[in-house]
Amino acid sequence: MTGGNPPAADGSWGGVPGWLVSLARSASGMIVPRQMSPPPGGGRPAAVLILFGEGPAGPDVLLVQRSPWLRRHAGQPAFPGGAIDASDGGPVAAALREAAEEARVDPSGVQVLAVLPELFIARSGFSVTPVLAWWRHPAPVGPGDPMEISSVARVPVSDLADPAHRLTVRYPSGQAGPAFQVGDMLVWGFTAMVVDQLLAIGGWELPWDAATLHDLPPGIVPEAVHGQDPVP
Predict the structure, then answer these.
(1) Does the pLDDT value for residue 69 go beyond 90?
(2) What is the domain count for the chain?
(3) Is residue 230 situated within a structural domain?
(4) What is the pTM assigned to this prediction?
(5) At what angle do helices 18-27 and 189-201 cross, to 10 degrees?
């Protein structure tokens, strides 16, 4: 693993908080929904960085909000990420590069802990590899290119786990998926599916009303169905 220090040779994980060590070890076996299993031959390789830190409200995760004037995924919250370039050499380097470009994350302050199973997004043809990391040395962040990213936020896990912030959204196709209303951001699709699984794996999930369906608000036009949102 690259980008900061991997777990120490003695297996001590070098100061990574216990909650994140447990999450990293368990998340490597994350369940891949049937509709997101990569097909034979895979797809176009992409990666996202799931960057956890410790903030004033406890554990948090970094999300970016895409600019409202983009042709694709306009205004959608997402993990920093994008296509893997040949020069990256793999998903870890790509995820760190994208986080630096999109959110001004300093890779030297990031410790990569786990590479999670690939998730296939049929509509775009991307096979996305989530890279789980610890923000060992947080530094100020912000939009790297305001034309692409409108805002960057450290979202407390407690806000995401709060039942009052959780909902199930229905897409025009009739399919449904988890979503999170945190501040001005409605997190849905691919990002919400991953967050939903990580909350359960990390032991943060609280009972919430998953049965009541909500339509996506006006102005949000999904380019795909469940599990298929922000990857450039």
Answers:
(1) no
(2) 1
(3) no
(4) 0.89
(5) 120
